[in-house]
């Protein structure tokens, strides 16, 4: 996804812009550019490729003197990655310059209208329309021009805008795409996300939809779409740059895998008090919980996979019917949402377009929405009726690990709390589940000890073409995530299959030497799983098994076994996923790939 930054103050803007953009690299991009307002007016430099290219082109920014500027990293949506399509974009006389994160859905109609009025376009992007539309409406007042385009433009945008007539002002406006403002003693900043400004300030404003910001070097003014000044409170950001840096690990992904014990503990512990599960932010009494007739868990990617586990846990513990939906399907399938339904939107970034749209679909139908979100102040967090934050801290690697684990933890807490509130489990059983939950962080720490063993094994599969993951029940959910982790960072094709389903077709793909990872943590399904392992092994597969310690019998039917500590059968995903995360990581590392920024992917998919 694209990233925008902006700075206005007493310092040279270009180095600050480049630094800010480097902190947004995790969002995925294919080109970058900056615009700086200096003595000779606004200068724009942009380039395809990594940020390094732009840094070298501008000699670290020194070629662009000036103390006001905006910058952009582009993840192409309209128009191929190219210098001309890179942002910033500007109007004909370069008196208005824009950077944009989002998609203008009616840009073709607007473009045609502007062309009919003599406007000429140089790029294939939707963003360039904004520069000319601002030009069309601009009569000296930036705020007026901005509000006018807001009434005409459809789609999503977070914009940074410079006006040549207003050298001491930087404008920003938001609709659906994330935008924050940083206030510091050395000037003020805008950005798509907090890491871009943390080096300069911890005092951040989260901009809401249809809010406009005018920044000068020592003042920040907020407006609504009616050009009325509004007041906003800053949020003090608790985590620091250190947290957002690699902390000595080779990749963010490995650091974040190792941060899972703490992340899970930070998500669980504040909500377990005096032997009870206390989730104040839920905004629901036990009476409200007893009224719930159905739960939908809606998400994308790995967050969706936690929902597949969530279904087993909520239905198993609280006996509440659960539907799990891909957000991109939910939003268009006209779901049947009866009263007394709870929709849970799970999202690390809180900005995933499909998940945000699913949230809005549910709310539009009067359905209560709970967000399970990692990024404080993100769109999903703010638009949900209630939000249960996962305290994983900033997750930079595109492949999620610690956020995934905290999403599981959040759903465990909810399911156990719901089960107790509905009288499905006794006080004693509640105590047992809480005891099992509290052990998880240490058990995750224990499983991390398999790192070397997994790394050695992974190096045998760097040339693999197909790798399968199979499991039943929660182990199928674990397989889904294990498969995604592998393929998204190693580019090896992989499939997760409900083990009982393999024989209905896909088993035909198993041939000599095919690696099949069997996940067996559900004791009541061990025998069934062993039969499935025999099925694939007799067809030549090499079987890696992930199972509970003590299940030594599996060594008769597996070629390589990884054991996890015994825990409650509903919580095994939190442990079994660890070796699978490490497996994906070491295969990618062994192939010399960009583990943290895999090709074609972005950390936050804020477009459809
Ligand atoms: C997981 O490793 C992927 N990066 C991706 O599937 C991700 O989980 C998905 O895009 C959802 O993102 P979200 O949690 O920020 O909504």
Characterize the biggest β-sheet.
Answer: 8 strands, antiparallel
From the spread of the alpha carbons, the general shape counts as globular
Total number of beta strands? 27
The fraction of residues assigned to DSSP E strands is: 15-25%
What is the count of helical runs?
19
List the quaternary state of the chains.
single chain
Helix content: 25-40%
- Which small compounds were modeled alongside the protein? 2-deoxy-2-amino glucitol-6-phosphate
Taking the alpha carbons of the first and last residues, their distance comes to: 11 Å
> Which regions are unreliable across 5 or more consecutive residues at pLDDT < 50?
none
Radius of gyration: 25 Å
Q: What would you note in describing this structure?
A:
- With 608 residues, the chain is α/β, with parallel strands linked by helices.
- Helices cover 35% and strands 23% of the residues.
- The chain contains 19 helices and 27 strands.
- The strands form five sheets. An eight-stranded antiparallel sheet has the order 3-2-4-1-10-9-11-15, covered by helices on one side. A seven-stranded antiparallel sheet has the order 5-6-7-8-12-13-14, with helices on one face. Strands 19-18-20-21-22 form a five-stranded parallel sheet, with helices on both faces.
- Strand 21 (368-373), helix 13 (379-383) and strand 22 form a beta-alpha-beta unit.
- Helix 10 packs antiparallel against helix 17, helix 15 packs parallel to helix 19 and helix 16 packs across helix 19 (573-590).
- The radius of gyration is 25 Å and the shape is globular.
- The termini are close together.
- 2-deoxy-2-amino glucitol-6-phosphate is lined by residues 300-303, 347-349, 352, 355, 398-400, 488, 604-605.
- 2-deoxy-2-amino glucitol-6-phosphate binds next to helix 10.
